[in-house]
Design goal:
Protein name: Sulfurtransferase
CATH architecture of the largest domain: 3-Layer(aba) Sandwich
Strand content: 5-15%
Distance between the termini: 32 Å
CATH topology of the largest domain: Oxidized Rhodanese, domain 1
CATH superfamily of the largest domain: Rhodanese-like domain
GO molecular function: thiosulfate-cyanide sulfurtransferase activity
Largest sheet: 5 strands, parallel
Helix content: 25-40%
CATH class of the largest domain: Alpha Beta
Strand order of the largest sheet: 1-5-4-2-3
Number of strands: 9
Shape: globular
InterPro entries: Rhodanese-like_dom, Rhodanese-like_dom_sf, Thiosulfate_sulfurtransferase, Thiosulphate_STrfase_CS
Pfam families: Rhodanese (PF00581)
Keywords: Repeat, Transferase
Length: about 280
């Protein structure tokens, strides 16, 4: 097991060694409290401006994406743009060399999106960590604070890697006929039944988290679920949802489990539908 998803004790022992990013809304960060030393980078600040409000990301507590957003058409999906992300990280006092732990209060789905965004803009994936559990789980056994965190503005260098897990719409279409690739839809059952990419298998991202602990289920339970769906580490796993938020969590979990070949369809079903591509319906 990797150190991509890390327990609260791991973080508590390294508060002086890591940069902690809280992606909740500012009113939660200030009013409810936060992990000591955390900096607030709200979710809607690292989403493309024309999608953030429509996505329902900051208002929908059960993890649904909006179905009515327009596809960007430029392959960037909901990514904010390299310059915007660099400025955001600089404002937070983060450098490209920092080891980052991100958390939210929604089982990690928003925090995972932050980490994937950082990875796509060149932050070393070995320095990106997701808190196992969320703020509600952390505060049960660990200290919180409402005091602000002092930091100086940094100069964050964006250096996108030559290769990323991102795939475009034509690659997704080709993958539907590839026996060595499994296309995975991480949305809810009712969404899948209303329409999904042909040949996709369904894996609701929340099937991998425990509602009681608010973190990941035990590894053997997760692997059993993945095996039941035919999501085999020997195959290429291509992930999508509606607007690339929920797949961020599943992508992070599969990386944590050591899946070697992951593909990330940033355009997701929003782009697929806008392009008029075929959909299958039913379970």
């Amino acid at each position: 097991m990797s150190e991509i998803v890390v327990p609260a004790e791991w973080v508590a022992d390294r508060l002086d060694e890591v940069r902690i990013v809280d992606v909740r809304d500012a009113w939660e960060f200030d009013g409810i409290g936060h992990v000591p030393g955390a900096v607030n980078v709200p979710f809607d600040s690292f989403r493309a401006d024309d999608h953030a409000a429509e996505d329902g990301a900051t208002t929908d507590p059960d993890g649904r994406d909006a179905d009515d957003t327009e596809a960007s058409g430029d392959g960037q999906g909901m990514l904010p743009g390299a310059d915007a992300f660099a400025d955001l990280m600089s404002e937070a006092g983060i450098t490209a060399d920092d080891r980052i732990v991100a958390y939210d209060d929604t089982h990690g789905v928003f925090a995972a999106r932050f980490l994937v965004t950082a990875e796509l803009y060149g932050h070393h994936p070995g320095r990106l960590h997701l808190l196992d559990g969320d703020f509600s789980a952390w505060r049960l056994d660990h200290e919180t604070t409402s005091e602000g965190t002092d930091f100086e503005r940094s100069t964050y260098e964006v250096d996108p890697p030559a290769e990323t897990p991102l795939v475009g719409i034509d690659a997704v279409a080709a993958a539907t006929d590839d026996p060595d690739t499994v296309v995975v839809d991480t949305r809810e059952a009712w969404e899948f039944e209303e329409g999904h990419i042909p040949g996709a298998v369904r894996l609701d991202w929340r099937e991998l988290v425990d509602d009681e602990t608010r973190g990941l289920k035990p590894r053997d339970e997760i692997e059993s679920t993945l095996d039941d769906r035919g999501i085999d580490p020997d195959k290429r796993v291509l992930l999508y949802c509606n607007t690339a938020r929920r797949i961020s969590h599943t992508y992070t979990v599969l990386r944590h489990l050591g899946y070697p070949d992951l593909a990330f369809y940033e355009g997701s079903l929003t782009e697929w539908k806008a392009a008029g591509r075929d959909l299958e319906t039913g379970a």
